[in-house]
Structures are given as structure tokens and as C-alpha cells.
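Re-run with default settings, no changes from the original entry. Doing this only to confirm the output is reproducible before filing.
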Amino acid sequence: MIGDWVDAESLQQIIVVAMVVLAVGAALVWRVVRRLLLRLVLVALIGALAASLWLQRADLQDCVDTCSCKLFGQEVDVPASANPNCG
């Protein structure tokens, strides 16, 4: 379990913030790192992480209907306000 304070709705907002932080990090890597190959590898890794977060966020939008949510294999609570059948 991720934590009692984290539910599917708040996790979507957290993922968006994490993606913005990753974008800023990629921009900083692009400006600071001088070696082209290292720069490309680091930006590709950050992009892959952002893409995986985006896919998990899309899955969280669908899980409210099923009352069963997982983020990277960890259970996430669905609040009763999102679906009265859950809980």
C-alpha cells in the first residue's frame, strides 16, 4: 500500500507535478551536460520515466469505475466520494 493519505484522485495531481519536475530536469540536463551522448541518454531516460508516469495516470482515471487501482504494482485507495460503490 502506498499510503493512507494517497488516493487515486490526489495521485493524478502528484503525477502531473512529477512530470513538470521531470521536464524542468530534462531542460537543465540539456543545458548543463556538455557531452552529446550523455546528454541524449539522460534526456531519453527522463522522457521514458515521464512517459511511464503518463501511462500510469491514464490507468488511474479508469480504475475509479472498478474500485481497484495500482500504480507501479502498489495498491491505491479509491475514495468513496469518487465512486460510492467503493469502500
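The first strand starts at residue 69 and ends at 71. The mean pLDDT is 81.
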